[in-house]
Amino acid sequence: MKLDNMVRKVYPNLMPYVCQLADLPVEEMKQALGKDQVYKLSFNENPLGPSPKAVEAMQKALLQLNLYPSSNGEAVLNRIAEKEGVQPDNVILSNGADEMIILVAQTFLEPEDEVIIPVVSFVQYLASTHLMGAKPVFSPMKEDLGVDLDAILDLITPATKTIFLCNPNNPTGTVIPADELRAFLARVPEHVLVVIDEAYHEYAVDPEYRTSVEFVKQFKNVFVIRTFSKIYSLAAARIGFGIGHADVVDAINHVRPPFNVNSIAQAGALASLDDEQHVAESRRINQVGKELIVELFEELGMNYLPSNTNFVCVDTGKDSKFMFDQLAERGVVVRNLSGYGLTTSLRISIGQPHEMQAFVAAMKDIIETA
Q1: Domains of the chain: which residue ranges?
Q2: How many CB atoms lie within 10 A of CB 23?
Q3: Which residues cross the membrane (predicted)?
């Protein structure tokens, strides 16, 4: 049997998700490093954990695992619509934000369609583009690693089908000012779907940032993606959602499989949406952690990007693989950004204060002994 004659033509461009050290669960990190204590600061997880209200709701939902869930998550849809000031037919649930990105690609992309992606951004956009055999077109970043909207406009052609924007952006933590984004959207042709990934929306602090949900009401070709993995700390539950024009949502629903979000995740999400105290505490812990490491970077003279997320991108001035390995030897695992061409930069997720203090101590030790 020759597999090459059986798989789709896009197969050579597809790569399985292979976990490196930074991608492992904490217990597996401990085994890989041979350490009893490891601080995982590589996956942008909320260190507070889920809302107690969400945990209680999910535990109750466990008693009905014999029953299929709502096929479209109607109760969650309705609550999101109410919270975001849209109609239920503007909202669609997914198995995490990753699935929503894939569903968008499956709905709108044909082979040879062009997809514009900022060169330093979330990798799932590229993977989903390859999945459909479409052509990725990378747009350059600004010198400060902000998203260059003018460069994106220059790359639009009749073949352009989709533009992916991450706002706030992963892995830089930067935002696109709302006024600039509105002006950009007004210039994007109607045949191009602009997908705006707001996974880190709730962490944004820049006064020039605003959610793009308001633009959904103005531009039919804008689709916003959110997740419950970050501020709501339901990463393992796998639930996300999209907000767009009713016609766009309906098109995606033609592709979305029924029951794609399990009942446990739906219960947790619904309860999380009503726990503002948990959201506020998540933001507080995040701010404390950011201040700790920003103070360190300023002390060490390292350039860092102002963060609107639950991580900080820093230029260490030293080889990023060297810094990653040195931190790992000290039991602190972060994200090496050399794969983005940022060969001296790291992305550090914000953890609990004691985790950030461990990072600070490890960094100081590396610098002192280097």
Answers
A1: 3-49+277-369, 52-272
A2: 15
A3: none
Residue 168: which of 141, 186, 147, 144 has the closest Cα?
Answer: 147
Q: How confident is the model at residue 5 (pLDDT cuts 50, 70, 90)?
A: confident
Cα gap 315→329, rounded to integer Å: 20
The Cα 70–Cα 250 span in angstroms is: 17
CATH architecture of 3-49+277-369: Alpha-Beta Complex (3.90)
Question: What mean pLDDT is reported for the chain?
Answer: 97
Q: Which of 207, 205, 198, 150 is nearest to 177 (CA)?
A: 207
Position 104: which residue type?
Answer: V
Spatial distance between the Cα atoms of 209 and 176, rounded to a whole number of angstroms: 7
Residue 165: beta bridge partners? 196
Q: What are phi and psi of 66, to 5 degrees?
A: -75, -10
Per residue in 298-314, pLDDT tens?
999 999 999 999 999 99
The CATH T-level fold of domain 52-272 is Aspartate Aminotransferase; domain 2 (3.40.640)
Under the phi-then-psi rule, with left for phi > 0, alpha for psi from -120 to 50, and beta for the rest, what region is 341? Answer: left
Each residue's pLDDT tens digit, 243-269: 999 999 999 999 999 999 999 999 999
CB atoms within 10 A of CB 53: 17
Cα separation, 121 vs 279, whole angstroms: 25
Q: How far apart are CA 31 and CA 48, in angstroms?
A: 24
- pLDDT digits 0-9 by tens, 43-88: 999 999 999 999 999 999 999 999 999 999 999 999 999 999 999 9
pTM: 0.97
Question: Residues 136, 345, 324, CA angle at the centre, nearest 5°?
Answer: 110
88 preceded by cis ω (within 30°)?
A: no
Question: What's the pLDDT band for 192 if we cut at 50, 70, 90?
Answer: very high
DSSP secondary structure, 160-191, as one string: EEEEEEESS-TTT-----HHHHHHHHHHS-TT
Q: How far apart are CA 205 and CA 307, in angstroms?
A: 8
C-alpha span between 184 and 173 (Å, rounded): 20
